[in-house]
Specification:
The complex is a heterotrimer of chains A (319), B (306) and C (321).
Chain A lengths: L1 H28 L15 H10 L6 H13 L5 E2 L4 E2 H36 L4 H15 L2 H15 L15 H40 L2 H9 L3 H38 L5 H10 L3 H29 L1 H5 L1
Antiparallel strand pairs in A: 1-2
Helix pairs in contact in A: 1-3, 1-11, 4-5, 4-7, 4-9, 5-7, 6-7, 6-9, 7-9, 8-9, 9-10, 9-11, 10-11
Chain B lengths: L1 H17 L5 H10 L2 H22 L3 H4 L27 H37 L1 H16 L2 H11 L5 H10 L3 H15 L2 H8 L4 H12 L1 H25 L10 H5 L5 H4 L7 H31 L1
Helix pairs in contact in B: 2-15, 3-5, 3-15, 5-6, 5-8, 5-9, 5-12, 6-9, 10-11, 12-15
Chain C lengths: L3 E14 L4 E16 L4 E6 L5 H9 L6 E6 L2 E2 L3 H7 L1 H4 E4 L13 H12 L4 H14 L16 H13 L5 E5 L7 H18 L2 E6 L2 H7 L2 E6 L2 E7 H6 L4 H8 L9 H22 L10 E2 L7 E2 L14
Parallel strand pairs in C: 3-8, 3-9, 6-7, 7-8
Antiparallel strand pairs in C: 1-2, 1-4, 4-5, 9-10, 10-12, 11-12
Helix pairs in contact in C: 4-5, 4-6, 5-6, 6-7, 10-11
Classes of the chains: A mainly alpha (319), B mainly alpha (306), C alpha/beta (321).
Chain lengths: 319, 306, 321
Amino acid sequence: MWKTILRRILLMIPQIIILSLLVFFVAKLMPGDPFSGKINPNTDPKTIEALKHQLGLYDPPLVQYGHWVQNIFRGDFGQSYTYNRPVLGLIGERAANTFWLGLLTAVLTYTVAIPLGLIAGKNEGKWPDRVIAFYNFVVNSVPPFAIYLIFLILFSFILKIFPSTGTVSASAHGFVQIFFSRIYHMILPAIAMMLSGTTAIVQYLRSGIIDNTKEDYVRTARAKGVPEKVIFRKHILRNAFLPIASSLGGTITGLLSGAIVAESIFSYPGMGQLFLQSVNSRDYSVMITLTLLFGILTLLGNLLSDIIMSIVDPRIRIQ
Amino acid sequence: MAEVEKSKLENQKDLGNEEVTPSTLKTIYREIIHDKWAMVSLFVALFIILFSIIGSFFINQDKLLTVDIFNAWLKPGQAGHILGTENSGYDILGFLIVGARNSILMGIALAILIESIGIFVGFISAYYGGIVDLIIMRIVDFFMIIPQTMAVITIVSIWKNYTPVNLVLLMAAMSWMSTTRLMRSLALSQRDRDYVLASKTSGTGNFKIIFREILPNISTFIITDFTLTLASMIGFEVTLSYLGFGLPDKVPSIGTLIGYAGDTNYMLTYPWGWLPALITLVILTVSINFFGQALRRAADARQRTA
Amino acid sequence: MSIIEVKNLKVWYPIRGGFFNTIKGYVKAVDDVNLSIEPGETYGLIGESGSGKSTIGKTIVGIERPTAGSIIYKGEDVTKGRNRKKLKYNRDVQMIFQDSLSSLNPRKRINDIIAEPIRNFEKLSKTEENHRVKELLDIVGMPKGSMYKYPFEFSGGQRQRIGIARAVSTHPKLIVADEPVSALDLSVQAQVLNYMQDIQKEFNISFLLISHDLGVVRHMCKNLSIMTRGRFVEVGTREDIYDRPQHIYTKRLLAAIPDINPRNRQEDTKERLRVEAEYENDEKAWYDKNHRVLDLKPVSSSNTHYAAVPESNSMVEQGGE
């Protein structure tokens, strides 16, 4: 198992290197330079040139890439042009918001999806299964951004049940109040994002249960007189949960890609919203850092899937 | 004599049979035609697609996109604007028809491109195996970690004067991976069947085997994946246009209209700006998806009995 | 003068493993095998499943790559793709598969299936081609109307006959028949085998008949080999092997053939148990340390009979090492 995990980690290294190279050269294509807006426009062009030389802007691209990577390892991702502060701190704040929203969404996703999957699988073809299939179909067919938008308009603006923006209300004081105010602000985007996360899990669990019920080892167990409850728990459920366990990594990836659109629609100040703001204000250093970060987080999500899979699946574990 | 007669008779019977010999596609066609809801969804999807494409021929785009701020936000029905006008005074019905056509054409172009890439790359990967497969799958793995939406937005934001064609290529470059994986696994399931080996010993070339022998055996899956990809790519383009990073400014998209819902100034005051577009989008993607899933069910059932 | 000669053929598959996915060892599907087939004869290759007999067949027709060794046809080594192309090798060497359904493309009509090799190797007009297909169908006893049908419309025996028609469509010199009848009912087996013998006589075709069915091989072949674990254990004529088996593995295999006569049942059972006991006691002496089959040695003066016998055939060491 450790070998499998270690090999996966080693395979990640070239992927990260190529990703960072791509990101770096896309960044090089972006207009402007580190001085844009920061330097007195009346500065002597020669001084600027000298500064550029000093900063290594005329070095060969690969040397520049080397400097960039060095800076990243020192935690220096450059300055945000709009906020006029280091990118790292800016993203850090937003990342915390995205993390909490993601966590809430993930918890909701599994608490909703697992019962739905169980019900659908146990009642194959009956009406609960059909209702759940219909839910799955609708959620899968409507583009996620339309779902977010409909939720926002319906629940925040027409029914006015949930706030439409922000993370915490200004009037909240003390830990308990702030805690609940935060959840209150997150719950609508979390539910909206949860919907699209559930479909795959429901689908896997349902077909896992149905397929395993038809396996010979289940029939054998039944023939031996094993009680139905034990059969379901030990022989069916355990196998049906294998793909669910590994879908956790996919959930992370889905949350990340959902965050860009969801956070901008719900005006939630996370990394996704920051990304779109930085694109609109041409805040390149923030854009670049976020793109790199999302790529690496996706990789980590995949790695997590593989690790979980290698822990729960004996076929991989023993090899 | 009798012998000849008999074989003649048999021949004729067989020729008559030729028409009704069930091929996979025909079986699926027969199953789909009896699926009432699948036919309804197909009809709805085709209606929207054809209405927007044909309707756009009767719309003068230059006139449609003439800014007329005096007629901004006319209510539906006012001054001959059936669905009213929007912020720049554009007729919403006309804008919606042209926008729907553009979004649909983008989706079709993307689906065709993605399926072609998927079939070509996936089949090569599966058929040749070994090192070729390894390299292709590593490339697929790599593209899978690139955040799709972010990458398109980043590149579009620094790409001056990009055209819809550029956008199609860019979006396809970020979306070809899952179809490629599907095609690879389908081709793998066929590769080691004896009929492929029989073609090899019959001296048939590799490319001919891939595209003439293997391809027809999985054509139903390709059609199914095409419809599902079409729906998801329409959604992708509309999302990008909604965010302002999709089709270029002068090219309307459904997403441009839905964008008015994202602005709290317009959302509740002028619902006719975004509601028709949102409804059109939802009906379109739902009906395409429904038809695609019905196709998949039919194809799977066929696969089980085969 | 033999039509094809297989020399020191080895087909090894690497086993990868460990951290860097390096080669840890090999599965020796075929390990140093020689055989030659005469024009017009049916050569039998017998072995249990996994013994490597199908791999030999696939290597001969060129869909499996050998690790070492050569296959000589018309004086050229046809393990090289270039030589195969130059000789139009697959026009002369064709194959019949075990699974008649999966060997026929389900999406093609019978005439397209049978005409495929013709289209690749000969330039015929549409009518000439149609004529040839009808002729071929006639040879294997199928009605002409089958041309426009799809494979799934036929029974297993009919499909196998279609497979034979495809194999003979380019008038080959050699057909590798990989378990051609083992998926068929007994009554249909004889029919298909008879068609094979008919076309053999008509076109002077050689067969390499791969089978695990000792009866079928005895019926069809003059010369045969017994194979296990990727190696030949015994080579000889039909009489050599069925009447005077030398190798312990061959003896065990032959003892397993059931006899139709129920009167001999008890004796047969006794004989079977005796062979089985001998096999279990002496097994080690007949294989080397790595469980590899020993090299073949001549075991009679007839010059046709070879077996992988130990140095001192009569004396068997107990316990080994």
